[in-house]
Amino acid sequence: MIRMRARAFTDRWAGPAGWALALAAGAGFVGVFFAWPVAALVGRGFVDPAGQLDLSGFSDVLSRPATWTVIGRTFAQAGAGTIASIVVGLPGAYVVSRLQFQGRGLLRAWMTVPFVLPTVVVGAAFRSLLGAGGPLGFLGWDRTAIAVLVGLVFFNYAVVVRIVGAMWERLDPRSVQAARTLGASPARAFFTVTLPQLGPSIAAAGGIVFLFCSTAFGVVMVLGGRRHANLEAEIYRQTTQLLDLRVAAVLSVVQLVVIAAALLAVARLRRRSERALNITAAGAGTHRPRRADAFALAVTAIVIGLVHVLPLGSLVVRSFRTEDGWGWGNYAALATTGGRGGLNVTLWQALATSARLATFATVIAMVVALLLVCTLARPIKSRLGRRIGAVVDGAVMLPLGVSAVTVGFGLLITMNNPLGLNVDLRSSGVLIAIAQGLVALPLVVRVISPVVRAIDPRLRQSAAVLGAGPWRILRTIDVPIAARSIGLGMGFAFAASLGEFGASSFLVRPGVVTLPVAIYQLLGKQGAEHFGMAMAAAVVLGLVTTMIVVAVERIRPPGAGEF
């Protein structure tokens, strides 16, 4: 009797009421720790000292030539970064999706590593390569628009490869074979048959890359400096240096409009891509490399060698250069706080803090993501339910696009007494973990959601006919099938949280400093000792991140999300 009552209770809460509660809990977390802080910060810019709404800031700020200069620079950087990433990414997508060769999985993992590397690591790598005394220092590209563009391609190359490659891997090869049989050359078959089929995934990848490029913060700050600041960097300057919340609020609204448009376009294109993924089974059209594949292989090798290996290799080499010559001195200095005017903590302590906070952030991201995926990825019968699900699904992506500066500063001004709980979250590292969890949440959802959506509904229907309740169906069908994707999402969440820099730079405290923030602080200090320590710390952080990505790639299941 007790077992029957327990089963009735769990089945009741695993039914529609349970799904609604799970959706409300996940959406509530995003609302409290993301939507509210962002709205609070933006709202402060439009309220005068008397507490009255004042929208005159729009006309004032948008009438300044400097504002449009920053907006134009942001669109120029994002457009150039998007085009370059797509052009160099398509050959890489072909190589990892259509060719069979030894080490293919390792190559896929290496392509993904730059995407989750901390921006300060990438900035340090390119500074060591392009700066004075670097191998390419004679080019004079340090702190130029070219350095920013290469840095944007460094990060977003993996986005194009993974999104387009996931589509390419499932294209039915018979249409290309038919075109070749009718006399079409390989180039003509690609441009007339393959490219139109890849159109939705290329557009979706382009939208996401544009989103990432337009909101890039760390790479622009480290590689471009003030001269090449985009909207994100300008919001940071107006907020922290000039304390002009009105200008920051207007710029944040402009950025939100751009992000919302990009996310809407990406969501529609992603739905088209997901429907197209059912064309054939993954890997049905793969083959061993042939002479016709030489161009794609050569372009991929050149891009990886010049854009990825060269700067990271320069970083490793530079980390061994000390004031006294070559050696392990910079790594030994990681156990210290540096020279005069150095850090408040050692870099090993900063790494331990980063690992601890990343663990908490991963737990937060996984719990919220699973609550959302359990509802958003399941068939919803009512029109109202589908609309609510679409809104929540789009809102989950916003933390990737909204200014990290806006999120971090918004959390600072709202979490002194959240919801009247008489608890100040700003005095501990909990707030950093929450911010990192918000950043990792969209990645986890995009990893797990496609697998859950791909589960054959007849499996659930058969289990229900045999007497299984909703909770047992979830436990015995959904969870085992999605288990590897859950592990993959967990790994990516930890890697992304470990290297998060934007929001953490606002929320760190003297005794709670993450390693990315410590590296950025060292890069801004004078002296070869501090620069060498920053190089060594960047190598350690990059190595840890690389090991995590390679490990999780080994458990990547077929049909998993792009990341």
Automatic annotation (TrEMBL):
User: Which InterPro entries does the annotation name?
Assistant: MetI-like (IPR000515), MetI-like_sf (IPR035906)
Q: What keywords tag this UniProt record?
A: Cell inner membrane, Cell membrane, Membrane, Transmembrane, Transmembrane helix, Transport
Asked if Membrane is a keyword of the record, the answer is: yes
Organism's domain of life? Answer: Bacteria
Residues of the signal peptide: none
Q: Name one GO cellular component term.
A: plasma membrane
Query: In this protein, which residues make up the domain named ABC transmembrane type-1?
Result: 71-265, 351-552
Q: What is its main location?
A: membrane
Q: Which residues cross the membrane?
A: 20-39, 75-95, 107-126, 146-165, 202-225, 245-267, 294-317, 357-376, 388-413, 425-448, 481-499, 531-552
The biological process GO terms on file are: transmembrane transport
Q: Where in the cell is it found?
A: Cell inner membrane; Cell membrane
Family, similarity comment: Belongs to the binding-protein-dependent transport system permease family.
Give the protein's recorded name: Thiamine transport system permease protein
Q: Which organism is it from?
A: Rarobacter incanus
